[in-house]
Design brief:
Blueprint: E1 16-17, E2 24-25, H1 26-41, H2 43-50, H3 79-88, E3 93-94, H4 96-101, H5 104-108, H6 112-116, E4 120-121, E5 125-127, E6 135-136, H7 139-152, E7 159-163, H8 169-182, H9 196-206, H10 215-220, E8 223-227, H11 231-234, H12 237-247, E9 251-255, H13 261-264, E10 265-267, H14 272-276, E11 280-281, E12 285-287, H15 294-310, H16 323-329, E13 330-331, H17 333-342, H18 345-352, H19 356-368, E14 372-376, H20 378-381, H21 386-399, E15 409-412, H22 419-424, H23 433-443, H24 455-463, E16 469-473, H25 477-480, H26 484-492, E17 496-501, E18 514-519, E19 528-529, E20 532-533, E21 536-539, E22 544-548, H27 562-574, H28 590-595, H29 597-607, H30 614-619, E23 624-625, H31 629-633, E24 643-644, E25 660-665, E26 670-671, E27 674-675, E28 685-686, E29 691-694, H32 696-702, E30 709-714, E31 722-731, E32 738-742, E33 767-773
Parallel strand pairs: 2-10, 3-4, 7-16, 8-9, 8-14, 9-12, 13-24, 14-15, 16-17, 17-18, 25-32, 29-31
Antiparallel strand pairs: 1-28, 5-6, 5-18, 10-11, 19-20, 21-22, 22-23, 25-33, 26-27, 29-32, 30-31, 30-33
Length: 775
């Protein structure tokens, strides 16, 4: 029986706070997955969909980018993966009659949960200037409106083309080709807000902005440091890999401001022990670090290794560093060690909130390990000093030669299922010249070289009147971005906003003077084109590329694939009336590519290194792994040809008296901006989202009782009053001076100008706030 979509917003009056869980998944995870799946899809459709997820002949889960092993279970999905599939394969629909019944003004008052639960969009819709209701339009008219608006711009740089990480390689490649054919590099994407700091730091230090490990490395590792990450909620399938590593003897150290159930104990639902036994304890140590203190931790670890390398009488003296690796493959060691000598233990302790003994004990684990992996996610990437922080992560690994050997390396754990593949395909405002050269040669045109807008710069351009048209390929731009009030006002200034989407979200309601909804096929659905049913490809967090083929009937007969939408739009933009190509546009047969995706892959093979014989490689079940110099041969594509040690001044947030440092985060019933439910089971939150987690010691110092209703007010040097109202205080185990609350409700608190050095990533993990009791 399919459940009905909610008719009301989440009622925060029903919010309750219970006990914090110390075990993840198990029977409750299975039950919750099935409950949501049956309510959204019904039992038959749920079974058919879930048994195809992540199978070699099935479709790739859109839930996250964690890779699959060669040996796959029949139920190769996690709880949040099941929720993601249920949301896309739902039987609920949002037809044109829905928009006739509900005005845009009314829908703006609905919360994210209620909007998303309405179901799949079925038809192209148009919101005319001054109108309160979207109306159905033909695809011909919808794409014609968009093409006319783009052609009318005085400068192609007045157009902004956003992409989410769920877009396939094929669609992403054509999208960037179309955008560059127009003459701009304005290709902001979700990476700008999440892992851009990882890419910046890794490209500078090891020459490639991708992780260097495989699943086999995780299994073989002797020590795994997991920093700024909550895999139990955000990447649950990672827990299976950690369990296997643990069974093979690995030591796991969790580094996080909040204790996370998934890193305490994992009850694997695919094993008897996980279902009815005690599960597997994962983390051997938990370092409850202050927000933004991770750079200090890794400098402390480096300092400890240096002291042990030099300490007379130490059993490890002269043997802590991998000097053969350092001498052959690195540069910059001297400057790095000099910086370590000058940083004090007292400052390291202040910045981390840890004891010196805790840091030294972790350092001792590093010395004992012959193969170390460091995993991280947004907890490390969304601070002002994130790039420097990640350089220091790399420094520690380089000291012991933990790059390019089995069981060791860097492991940024990414979110969206193809966010890494989109970047590989050219979704980036600053692609290297080699990519442009290959693209130009393949399509006989001159792609623009000036850098385009990243996400923050795109919002600034819209705010400042420098942009006129916005096109979003997936995602929920208005709820994913910082400084919500500024972002919404910026979008309102545009002449047209258009969204290529599967489901209803806030970005369809915060619009330019006119707006389009362009509904598209989902990953679960059959993509039938003139040459037959099509497959697409994705790249996971570990550089493995594989095919994905949906099998379910499309949610509507009036949906187009992302590839088809891009190709039809490109034809309107670039083709002449007689079927030729406009001067300066890419020479491409857009109609042929829309009908046969293998033609797209042949172009990708000619442009992107590592994709030679693309079609044949994805014929092999499981796909193939892209080349990675540091991992494959300890070769580094830096300007020196060597891995770079870097000397980084120690930075960490300083919080004024009476204030807290806030991190925005997900609840368990959430994936990015998509809200699956009202609960955060592991943290004990039920029937609500407007909570702020604060240490009891801070509450006592503020004179605020647990359960008090407060406004969260962020403080930034511009003096603007950014306020998130009506949050319930929850006394919780966080470091003193630190707090946490869910996004997107708290994105309003993140100043647009507060961003990471080098990468430009919004600082969503270090927002200075005060608590103001309500009433």
């Amino acid at each position: 029986m399919v459940g009905k979509a909610p008719h009301e917003n989440i009622d925060e009056q029903k919010l309750s706070v219970g006990s914090v869980k110390k075990k993840a998944v198990g029977i409750p995870g299975v039950v919750h997955s099935l409950d949501i799946s049956f309510k959204q899809m019904g039992p038959f459709r749920a079974a058919r969909a879930l048994l195809q997820v992540n199978q070699k002949d099935g479709f790739d889960c859109m839930g996250c980018a964690w890779p699959e092993s060669d040996k796959r279970h029949k139920a190769e999905f996690c709880e949040n993966g099941a929720k993601a599939v249920a949301e896309e394969a739902t039987n609920r629909r949002v037809p044109p009659s829905f928009f006739a019944e509900h005005s845009v003004s009314e829908l703006r008052e609905w919360d994210d949960f209620r909007l998303g639960q309405q179901g799949r969009l079925t038809d192209p819709m148009y919101l005319a200037e001054g109108s309160e209701h979207y109306v159905p339009v033909s695809w011909e008219r919808a794409l014609g409106i968009l093409a006319d608006e783009l052609k009318a711009l005085k400068d192609p740089n007045e157009a902004i083309f956003y992409t989410s990480g769920r877009t396939s390689n094929e669609a992403a490649f054509l999208y960037q080709l179309m955008v560059r054919g127009l003459g701009t590099n304005n290709l902001p994407d979700c990476s700008n807000m999440c892992h851009e700091s990882s890419g910046s730091a890794l490209t500078e230090t090891i020459g490639i902005g991708k992780g260097s490990v495989s699943l086999e490395d995780i299994y073989q590792s002797e020590l795994i440091l997991i920093a700024g990450q909550n895999p139990g909620t955000n990447h649950p399938r990672m827990l299976t890999a950690l369990e296997k590593a643990k069974q093979n003897g690995a030591v796991i150290v969790a580094v996080n401001p909040l204790p996370e159930a998934g890193l305490m104990n994992f009850k694997n639902p695919q094993t008897i022990r996980g279902l009815v036994g005690g599960g597997t304890d994962l983390a051997d140590d938990f370092l409850q670090i202050k927000l933004g203190g991770d750079q200090a931790l890794f400098q402390g670890l480096g300092k400890f290794l240096l002291e042990e390398q030099r300490r007379p009488g130490s059993p490890h003296a002269g043997r802590v560093f991998d000097t053969a690796f350092i001498d052959s493959h690195t540069t910059g060691l001297g400057e790095y060690l000099e910086q370590l000598e000058h940083v004090s233990w007292a400052e390291i302790v202040t910045a981390t909130g840890l004891t010196e003994a805790q840091i030294r004990a972790t350092g001792a684990r590093l010395i004992m390990s012959k193969a170390t992996v460091v995993c991280w996610a947004m907890g490390l990437t969304q601070h002002k000093h994130s790039v420097a922080m990640l350089r220091d992560v790399v420094n520690v690994l380089l000291l012991q030669g933990n790059i390019g050997k089995p069981g060791a390396g860097v492991c940024p754990v990414r979110g969206h299922s193809n966010v890494q593949g989109d970047r590989t395909m050219g979704i980036f405002e600053r692609m290297p010249d080699a990519f442009h050269d290959a693209l130009d040669a393949e399509f006989a045109f001159s792609s623009p070289r000036p850098h385009g807008f990243d996400t923050v710069a795109a919002i600034e351009a819209m705010r400042d009147g420098l942009a006129g048209v916005f096109l979003g390929m997936g995602g929920n731009f208005v709820r994913a971005t910082p400084d919500s009030s500024v972002t919404e006002a910026a979008l309102n200034k545009l002449s047209l906003t258009a969204q290529i989407s599967t489901k209803l979200n806030k970005s369809h309601l915060i619009t330019g003077r006119s707006a389009l909804i362009l509904p598209t096929l989902g990953r679960t659905e059959r993509d039938a084109q003139t040459s037959g049913d099509q497959r697409v490809t994705v790249e996971d967090s570990m550089s493995a590329v594989h095919a994905s083929r949906g099998r379910l009937a499309p949610a509507s007969d009036n949906l187009l694939s992302e590839v088809a939408i891009v190709c039809r739009l490109a034809q309107l933009l670039f083709e002449t009336d007689d079927g030729g190509t406009r001067p300066g546009a890419p020479l491409a047969d857009w109609a042929a590519m829309a009908g046969d995706y293998s033609l797209i892959r042949s172009h990708i093979a000619a442009v992107v290194p590592g994709f030679e014989d693309f079609e044949a490689k994805i014929d092999v079940p499981g796909g193939f792994v892209l080349p990675h110099g540091p991992r494959d041969s300890r070769s580094f594509s830096t300007h020196s040809g060597l891995a770079h040690f870097t000397a980084n001044e120690l930075e960490y947030p300083r919080v004024p008296e009476g204030r807290l440092l806030l991190q925005t985060l997900r609840s368990h019933d959430q994936y990015n901006t998509t809200i699956y439910g009202k609960d955060d089971r592991y943290r004990g939150i039920k029937n609500g989202r407007r909570v702020v987690f604060v240490n009891q010691q801070d509450l006592d110092s503020f004179g605020i009782a647990d359960g008090t209703m407060v406004d969260l007010v962020s403080e930034w040097k511009d003096g603007v009053d950014r306020r998130a109202p009506n949050f319930r205080v929850v006394a919780y185990s966080t470091p003193v001076g630190c707090a946490a609350a869910y996004y997107p409700e708290t994105n309003v608190l993140v100043p647009l100008d507060s961003k990471a050095d080098v990468s430009g990533t919004p600082t969503s993990k270090s927002v200075v706030i005060r608590l103001e009791p309500v009433g």
